[in-house]
Amino acid sequence: MEAIKLKTAVLDRLTDAEFFEFCQDHRDLRIERATSHQITIMPPASSETGSYNSDLITDLVLWNRQHQLGKTFDSSAGFTLSTGAMLSPDASWLAQARWDALSADDRRGFARVCPDFVAELLSPSDRLTDTMRKLEHWLEAGARLGWLIVPATESVYIFEPGQPVRPVVGFDQVLSGGSVLPGFELELRRLRPRG
């Protein structure tokens, strides 16, 4: 099942508040909006991908609870970027000072901020080139670290500002959060497809 792209003059004119209301009216759908205001309705993640995402977000939450450096978000959180796009990464993290700087109203909507860290897990319904472009979009909007994790090929693409995309092949390795997520490590073997 592929994503459905909606592009009509009526949807193009939705304000951010109206788009938020549109999403609330269709809570059962996974919705994103591109810079062009094209709305994309994405299929649910596969059960296997959901399980991997659960492992990833659990590790991120546990690390954050220990270090108390910011806020973690799961795949249901949307962020309005400076480009006008509203995207939802599979897992993300935002430094506490940047979260604290947001107004209460902004926090209750699709916050106007780009997370410092974003991770995307490639589901069988996703296209690698589209998801790589999405990671590039996150970096352009201000993300400091992005991971595109592809369980099917046991590979990861690491995105950092001003650096070429760095591939990591093989799930016998451990990813480090570096200076963005100090002390955070993800054991890739736990995301290895089973059976």
Description:
The radius of gyration is 16 Å and the shape is globular. It contains six helices and 13 strands. It has helices at about 10, 15-25, 45-65, 95-100, 105-110, 130-140; strands spanning about 5, 30-35, 40, 70-75, 80, 85, 90-95, 115-120, 145-150, 155-160, 165-170, 175, 185. A hairpin with a 5-residue loop joins strand 5 (about 80) and strand 6. The chain starts with a strand and ends in an 8-residue tail after the last strand. It is an alpha+beta fold. It has a six-stranded mixed sheet with strand order 4-7-8-9-10-11, with helices on both faces. The chain has one domain (about 45-190): tt1808, chain A, CATH 3.90.1570.
Layout of helices and strands:
Layout: E1 4-6, H1 9-12, H2 16-25, E2 30-33, E3 39-42, H3 47-67, E4 70-73, E5 79-80, E6 86-87, E7 91-95, H4 96-100, H5 104-108, E8 117-121, H6 128-141, E9 145-150, E10 155-159, E11 166-169, E12 174-176, E13 185-187
Parallel strand pairs: 8-9
Antiparallel strand pairs: 1-3, 2-3, 4-7, 5-6, 7-8, 9-10, 10-11, 12-13
